[in-house]
């Protein structure tokens, strides 16, 4: 009888311990899910801070939209580059961190004009999908208001993570206000996605343009961001001296 009682007591303890383990595991799973969702949505409700420009823009620098490209620089600059980038692309973010100062210095010095192409390459890679296209459209709207570079720099300075939530249209409109855009047409353009179709059409041409195709190893060849071209040829921006070579 004593042995049976001890056995029953031991079984009961095992059962209680087992239930406890299940509860602990469940709590860890639920906690992990909550953390994952919070991490994925961490941009929700955030105010996008204006980027801290490396240099103030000179008064004679123009920021002009031409279709879905934006040209920034002084008239008569001897060198021009085209930069193809996606606001969600992490390598594009690294490119900006590394070369933004040098590019803006060359723009201010009148040595360089830059044609910026916002490419919605990663439209399906945000959660929910759409940030790449929404941000590209908003940047063109900012160009219409003469504030493209300020808007562009702020989005890269506060870049969301690929695969997670980007910024919604309300946040993009608020950023426009924070960089000094007062024209109500800006908010209307962002809300309506005015340039979406043009951006998608341009992207289809860009990704099939053989002049913009690069080798990525393993037999893979195609278009990727960031891509920089000068005089119709792709520039190896991984070369730390590429900008000096372009502007001479």
From TrEMBL:
Gene3D superfamilies: Glutaredoxin. The keyword Oxidoreductase applies. Signal peptide: none annotated. It comes from Amycolatopsis rifamycinica. It holds the Pfam family Thioredoxin_4. This is Membrane protein. Belongs to the thioredoxin family. DsbA subfamily. The chain crosses the membrane at residues 15-38. GO terms for molecular function: oxidoreductase activity. Keywords: Disulfide bond, Membrane, Oxidoreductase, Redox-active center, Signal, Transmembrane, Transmembrane helix. Residues 70-243 form the Thioredoxin-like fold domain.
């Amino acid at each position: 009888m004593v042995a049976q009682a001890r056995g029953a007591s031991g079984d009961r303890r095992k059962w209680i311990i087992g239930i406890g383990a299940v509860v602990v595991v469940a709590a860890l799973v639920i906690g992990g899910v909550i953390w994952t969702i919070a991490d994925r949505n961490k941009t929700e409700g955030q105010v996008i801070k204006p980027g801290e420009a490396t240099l103030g823009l000179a008064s004679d620098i123009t920021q002009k939209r031409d279709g879905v490209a934006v040209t920034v620089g002084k008239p008569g600059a001897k060198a021009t580059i085209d930069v193809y980038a996606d606001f969600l692309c992490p390598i594009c973010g690294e490119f900006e961190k590394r070369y933004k100062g040098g590019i803006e210095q060359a723009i201010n010095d009148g040595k360089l004009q830059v044609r910026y192409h916002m490419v919605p390459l990663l439209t399906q890679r945000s959660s929910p999908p759409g940030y790449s296209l929404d941000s590209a459209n908003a940047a063109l709207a900012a160009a219409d208001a003469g504030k493209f570079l300020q808007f562009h720099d702020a989005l890269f300075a506060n870049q969301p993570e690929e695969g997670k939530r980007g910024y919604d249209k309300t946040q993009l409109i608020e950023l426009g206000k924070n960089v000094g855009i007062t024209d109500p047409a800006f908010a209307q353009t962002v809300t309506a996605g005015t340039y979406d179709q043009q951006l998608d059409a341009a992207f289809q041409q860009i990704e099939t343009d053989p002049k913009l195709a690069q080798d990525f190893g393993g037999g893979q060849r195609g278009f990727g961001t960031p891509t920089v071209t000068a005089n119709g040829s792709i520039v190896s921006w991984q070369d730390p001296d590429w900008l000096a070579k372009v502007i001479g």
